[in-house]
Amino acid sequence: MTYNQLRKKAMKYMSQHVEYNALIHALGGISIGLLIASPLAHPHPVRWALVFGGLSILGHIYAIYPKK
Question: How many CB atoms lie within 10 A of CB 52?
Fold first, then answer.
């Protein structure tokens, strides 16, 4: 599959599942926020950022290859 085909599949899935779309993008935002702000206040921010970032990436992959 080409990039454009994968992108169209993901966009179609995300437009039909708005709450899911919001959740995976919120997880990505939390991940970025942890990397930027938390090293000053919390121990192990990279570990938690990787967890939230990984969940966000897995959510995007699921949107491309959903089970039928």
Answer: 19
Predicted confidence (pLDDT) at residue 43 exceeds the cutoff of 80: no
pTM (predicted TM-score): 0.81
Q: How many domains in the chain?
A: 1
Supply angle C-alpha 44, 48, 24, rounded to 5. 165
Q: Which range marks the domain in which residue 42 is found? A: 3-64
Any idea of the CA torsion for 57, 64, 9, 27, to the nearest 10 degrees?
A: -30
Print the SS3 string covering 20-63.
HHHHHHHHHHHHHHHHHHHHHCCCCHHHHHHHHHHHHHHHHHHH
Type of residue found at 43: P
